[in-house]
């Protein structure tokens, strides 16, 4: 697993690599779910692989060290003492994140021996194990689910690690043990949680994925506190992100809209049009542009399985496809009340005028307002992140994902 991460450029030399090489994942995750039903088949059928069963070990090792997400909890069940049996339907409520994402964030976190670390979203305990290996005993790991916390406490202890394992709302952090030199949130939010920022020590760093309702263009917020106490924050597009936190609304392409994007056929031909354009949409690699489009013209989802560019707006049924025609022009088809092609080029013009930023400045006001910005004067480009929503129950506010 580590060799594959290195070969793909997702992991470099250093203490994180050493920690991953030393980590017996079968101790942290002695059970894991695997899907047995075919894609689209209902009900969804899953089996629980168990390390204590010799016939399961080969398949479980492949799951644990394959690098993909590992499914560890179904419908909020207790993890300790769980019998080996299959599950039908229901949802996975905790998992260990893909190692490509985990390793990249752990490296960016720049863990050092002696750091005080807050790991928000315990999950299987991979992040906590790495933090304990690198930094020592001054690690707090926080999860909304006490069953997940209980299992992580026992299994990390079996590896010789003794972090402070606590249960509560991730958005509020754990001020009792702060401030922290490093804070990592392993679920995505529409904003940066201010209580966690307040728990950041001078010289500290906080990482959290920031998302909108769309799953297509996630971002990473990097928040640092200077030795003098001043907060600096940036926002940049990323390819992969943690799952959205518990209760956060997400939109997806329904099957009929996906079919229209794949075929280019509108159900109402009077509401559609096709044309050629010499204007190319910004490249996929222009992450700063796509963040701006998502913020300024929300509600769009990209269909990544279609050649060229295919975007749909589930709320109103609008869609747009654009494919290169081989002559340097683009063949464009649009349908619905939204003119998505125009939205793209209006946003592209503003983004270019602001200097085509790949990284945005993120302003975190003490009153709670959070603003994203780039450029200056008449060429400024920016938007506000939504205000935090206060959960009614502080112990049940976030999904666990790592």
From TrEMBL:
Location of this chain's protein in the cell: Cytoplasm
Transmembrane segment boundaries: none
GO process annotations (BP): methylation
Heme in keyword set: no
GO terms under cellular component: ribosome
Predominant place of localization: cytoplasm
GO molecular function: methyltransferase activity
Segments of this protein annotated with the region Disordered: 378-402
Record's keyword terms, sorted: Cytoplasm, Methyltransferase, Ribonucleoprotein, Ribosomal protein, S-adenosyl-L-methionine, Transferase
Pfam families per UniProt: PCMT (PF01135)
InterPro entries per the UniProt record, alphabetical: PCMT, SAM-dependent_MTases_sf
Family the entry assigns: Belongs to the methyltransferase superfamily. L-isoaspartyl/D-aspartyl protein methyltransferase family.
Descriptive protein name: Protein-L-isoaspartate O-methyltransferase
Organism expressing this protein natively: Streptomyces tubbatahanensis
């Amino acid at each position: 697993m580590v060799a594959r991460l290195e070969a793909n450029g997702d992991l470099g030399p250093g203490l994180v690599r050493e920690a991953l090489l030393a980590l017996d994942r079968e101790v942290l995750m002695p059970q894991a779910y695997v899907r047995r039903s075919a894609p689209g088949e209902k009900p969804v059928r899953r089996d629980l692989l168990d390390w204590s069963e010799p016939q399961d070990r080969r398949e479980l090792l492949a799951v644990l060290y394959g690098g993909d997400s590992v499914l560890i909890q179904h419908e909020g069940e207790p993890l300790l003492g769980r019998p080996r049996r299959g599950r039908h339907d229901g949802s996975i409520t905790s998992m260990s994140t893909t190692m490509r994402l985990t390793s990249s964030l752990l490296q960016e976190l720049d863990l050092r021996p002696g750091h005080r670390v807050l790991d928000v979203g315990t999950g299987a305990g991979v992040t906590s194990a790495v933090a304990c290996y690198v930094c020592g005993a001054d690690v707090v790991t926080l999860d909304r689910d006490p069953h997940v916390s209980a299992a992580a406490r026992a299994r990390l202890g079996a590896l010789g690690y003794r972090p402070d394992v606590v249960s509560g709302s991730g958005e509020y952090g754990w001020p009792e043990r702060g401030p922290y030199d490093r804070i990592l949130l392993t679920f995505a939010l529409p904003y940066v949680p201010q209580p966690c920022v307040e728990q950041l020590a001078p010289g500290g760093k906080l990482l959290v994925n920031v998302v909108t309702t769309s799953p297509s263009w996630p971002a990473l917020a990097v928040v640092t506190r200077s030795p003098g106490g001043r907060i600096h924050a940036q926002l940049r597009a990323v390819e992969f992100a943690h799952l959205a936190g518990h209760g956060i609304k997400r939109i997806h392409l329904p099957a009929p809209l996906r079919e229209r994007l794949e075929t280019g056929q509108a159900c109402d031909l009077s509401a559609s049009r096709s044309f050629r354009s010499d204007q190319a949409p910004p490249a996929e690699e222009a992450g700063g542009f796509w963040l701006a489009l998502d913020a300024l013209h929300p509600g769009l989802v990209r269909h990544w399985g279609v050649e060229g560019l295919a975007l749909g707006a589930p709320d109103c049924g609008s869609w747009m496809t654009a494919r290169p025609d081989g002559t340097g022009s683009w063949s464009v088809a649009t349908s619905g009340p939204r003119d998505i092609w125009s939205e793209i080029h209006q946003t592209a013009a503003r983004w270019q005028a602001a200097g085509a930023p790949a990284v945005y400045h993120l302003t975190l006001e003490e009153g709670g307002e959070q603003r994203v910005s780039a450029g200056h004067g008449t060429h400024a480009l920016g938007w506000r992140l939504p205000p935090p929503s206060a959960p009614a129950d502080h112990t049940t506010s976030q999904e666990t994902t790592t």
